[in-house]
Amino acid sequence: VRKPIIAIDGPAGAGKSTVTRQVAKALNLTYLDTGAMYRGIAWLVLKSGIPVEDESAIAELVSQADLEFIFPSNDQPPQIIINGENVTHAIRTPQVTALVSPISAYPVVRQKLVSYQQELGKLGGIVAEGRDIGTNVFPDADVKIFLTASVQERARRRLIDFQAQGQDNIDIQQLERDIEQRDYQDSHRTLAPLRQASDAMELNTDGLTIEDVVNKIIHLYKMNE
Ligand code: C5P
C-alpha cells in the first residue's frame, strides 16, 4: 500500500511553502513544491526568448527540455535543474513570477508536470503543495487543505519577505495588485484551475501564526491515521 499523501492548495502568498515544509519535516514526509516546477518551465521560456503567446514553440521547447526535479526527504531545499543548469534560485525572480501563470495554463506544460508529480507520489509519503493537488494531481490524498488569507494579509507577508532580503523600495499596493492578478489567472484558466476540492478543509490563516497552522494540519493528519 502507498504511504500517506497530504495535499495543500491555495492562492499565492497564503503561506503554503513555509507551512508545507514544516509539516513535512515534523511528519518525516517529503516536501513536493509543484510551484517550483512550473517556475522552472517559466524560467526556460524566459531564457529562450520565445514570446509567451507562442504556444506551439513553447510546446516544442518543453518537449525537448531535460527536466530534473529533486525533492530530498531530509530538510534540504528542492533542486530544480533544467537542461543541466541549476535554477533553484533563478526561478524566484519577479520576471519569472510574472510569467508563470500564463505558462502554467498551457496543456502541454501541465500534462508534463502532472505526470512527473504523480510518478514522484506513486509510493506516497509526501506533502504536496500547489493549486490543483487535491483536485487533479492526487484526488485520493489522505488529507486535503485549502490554505487562504486575505489579499491584504498576503501582501503584508510578501512585503516582510522582501524587506528581510534588504529590498525596501516595494510598493504594497502593487503587491496587492500582483497577487490579485495571479489569483485571477490561476482560478480562471480552463485546465485544472485553482479551486477548493469538495473534500478539502479550508484554513484561513489571517491572524494565525505559522506554528498554529502547522499544528492544525498535523492534528488533522493524526485524526486520519
Ligand atoms: O506556488 P508558487 O507561487 O511557486 O506557484 C507559481 C505559479 O505556478 C502559480 O501562480 C500557478 O500559476 C502555477 N502553479 C500551478 N499549479 C500548481 C502549482 C503552481 O498552476 N500545482
From TrEMBL:
Protein origin, superkingdom: Bacteria
UniProt-annotated stretches for the region Cytidylate kinase: 1-225
Domain Cytidylate kinase: 6-222
Places the protein is found: Cytoplasm
General function of this protein: Catalyzes the condensation of pantoate with beta-alanine in an ATP-dependent reaction via a pantoyl-adenylate intermediate. Catalyzes the transfer of a phosphate group from ATP to either CMP or dCMP to form CDP or dCDP and ADP, respectively.
Family under the similarity heading: In the C-terminal section; belongs to the cytidylate kinase family. Type 1 subfamily.
Protein name in the entry: Bifunctional pantoate ligase/cytidylate kinase
Organism, as annotated: Crocosphaera subtropica (strain ATCC 51142 / BH68)
Organism classification: Bacteria, Bacillati, Cyanobacteriota, Cyanophyceae, Oscillatoriophycideae
Entire protein: shown range: 284 to 508 of 510
